[in-house]
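Re: that backbone. Tokens:
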């Protein structure tokens, strides 16, 4: 019996052994480190997903604005026609000496700060104003008249969003952003036939006020935020070289009511390109995402984002070079951006 008890005792002691305090503490430390690593990975994944989702949603809005601008531009018209000139003006029986081109409409693009006086120095890039048979009406009695002539204009403006928000969120701090704006009066409000050239869009850029309603509001509305630059470059169909392609508007400005490009191969008459649309127009839009815009606004760097880049955008032949300079500047400031660019045909001349 004593012999058996002596043999059992070592086994009993081994069954009663457990983890020491040091082993438990080491295990808990390793587990805590693993949990911290997993939590950081989940947090980084969630942050990356949120940023990507916000960027996709933001640029989806920009794509909509870009498509809207280009779609409406393809419908632009000046409705040119020929008018005879006679030896004796006012005498319908007098012989016709020549025919000249006439139009009651206007297509104009150029520097936004000059074309949008109500925008002042808060604009960025270019603006375009034109007429198109869009049929957007305000009076239900005109329903079905889908080809009524409407005035349209597009430009980028920097400012607060107070005038565009409903009253119930006015307690939220206003956000200053670059926005692409659409000048969009109803067909019934089109003053192209009653106002002098360049005066029919003089209300463009007028800020909305909180006490305005759909009938009394300004005629300009935002269609997308965080568009820092909008450019329009009229061009020829014959684009054998860059200089010839942009010589119709070497400094981007084009006005269908003015005599320009007269005596050229493309426009050999004395009127040149007067009362005609440019054959092609290149549209360029540069957008940033909301998180980047918010960061730059807090640092007071948003308003000067384009002007501080050194890109002048004064010569159509240097457009791509200036765009490259702007992109280099945006990358150096860690700005998430996207450039949209296309060239569309304006077929009203055919």
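Recovered sequence:
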């Amino acid at each position: 019996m004593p012999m058996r008890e002596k043999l059992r005792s070592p086994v009993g002691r081994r069954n009663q052994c457990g983890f020491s305090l040091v082993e438990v503490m080491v295990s808990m430390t390793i587990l805590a480190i693993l949990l911290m690593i997993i939590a950081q990975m989940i947090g980084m994944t969630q942050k990356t997903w949120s940023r990507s989702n916000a960027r996709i949603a933001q640029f989806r809005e920009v794509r909509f604005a870009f498509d809207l601008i280009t779609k409406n531009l393809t419908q632009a018209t000046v409705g040119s026609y020929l008018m005879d000139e006679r030896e004796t003006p006012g005498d319908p029986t007098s012989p016709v000496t020549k025919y000249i081109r006439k139009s009651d409409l206007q297509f104009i693009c150029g520097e936004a700060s000059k074309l949008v006086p109500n925008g002042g120095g808060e604009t960025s890039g270019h603006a375009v104003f034109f007429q198109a048979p869009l049929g957007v009406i305000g009076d239900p009695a005109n329903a079905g008249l889908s080809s009524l002539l409407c005035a349209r204009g597009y430009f980028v403006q920097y400012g607060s969003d107070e005038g565009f928000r409903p009253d119930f969120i006015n307690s939220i701090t206003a956000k200053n952003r670059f926005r692409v704006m659409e000048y969009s009066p109803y067909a019934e409000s089109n003053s192209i036939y009653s106002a002098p050239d360049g005066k029919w869009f003089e209300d463009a850029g007028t800020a909305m006020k909180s006490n305005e309603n759909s009938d009394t509001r300004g005629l300009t509305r935002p269609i997308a935020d965080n568009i820092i630059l909008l450019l329009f470059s009229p061009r020829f169909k014959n684009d054998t070289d860059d200089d010839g392609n942009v010589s119709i508007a070497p400094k981007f400005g084009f006005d269908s009511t003015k005599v320009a490009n007269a005596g050229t191969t493309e426009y050999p008459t004395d009127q040149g390109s007067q009362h005609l649309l440019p054959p092609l127009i290149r549209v360029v839009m540069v957008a940033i995402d909301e998180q980047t815009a918010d960061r730059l606004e807090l640092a007071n760097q948003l308003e000067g984002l384009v002007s501080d880049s050194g890109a002048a955008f004064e010569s159509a032949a240097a457009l791509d070079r200036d765009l490259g300079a702007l992109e280099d500047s945006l990358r150096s400031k860690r700005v998430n951006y996207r450039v949209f660019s296309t060239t569309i045909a304006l077929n009203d001349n055919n």
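The chain has one domain: 55-73+106-349. The chain has a mean pLDDT of 83.
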